[in-house]
Structure prediction request, 229 residues.
Amino acid sequence: MSAQKPVLVAIFAHPDDEAFGPGGTLALYAKTHDVYLICVTKGQAGRNNTTDMERPLQDIREEELQNSAKLLGIKRIYFLDYEDGTLSNNQYHSIANDIQMLLDELKPETLMTFEMRGVSGHIDHIAVSMIVHFVFHKVPYTKKLMLYCEREEVIKNFRDYFVYVPHGYSDKEIDRVIDISDVWETKVKAMYEHKSQIKDVNTILYGKKENVKEECFLIHTKADETINP
Prediction:
């Protein structure tokens, strides 16, 4: 009887957050962990850059996420069906409860989401990050929280992308840098599965210029527990 794999659950606001963010790291973890994804919305407020104008955008983006997740080795996606662009104070506890119900089933040791500024400053990203922090400290089985972040020099290339883009992190602030060279092509293929967001795909890849094959994280652990990195 084979040993049960440890569980990692990634929690993000939109389809594409998984690939545009820590896609390489998710692909690496999928080799040794059971990786699951909770997506709080279906990205229905995004743009549709495909020629498919018949189907609702949320259906297109759900399918794109399923294709991306398959490439990354994610076992299952859970959609919470909140409205894209509306994640706010009056929904925090409802979203937290929905997430906790799933986590209570999966019992992950590790959670992953965006850092507290949402990387890009997107309000939905920030909301989900705050909610995941809340749930992480509430449940007994989680031991590590991985917060995807970007370096200062990368963020500078996106200054005109949103109205507000928070500063990136210095090397001294970053807790862990993961080499994704071995899965870089997989990450890029997963990004390109989000065809409706192709302009963002190209902007992100161009903005990284050097295509640095690394992903950066802030790491939170529970003070009374020790775990392997």
About this structure: The longest strand covers residues 34-41.
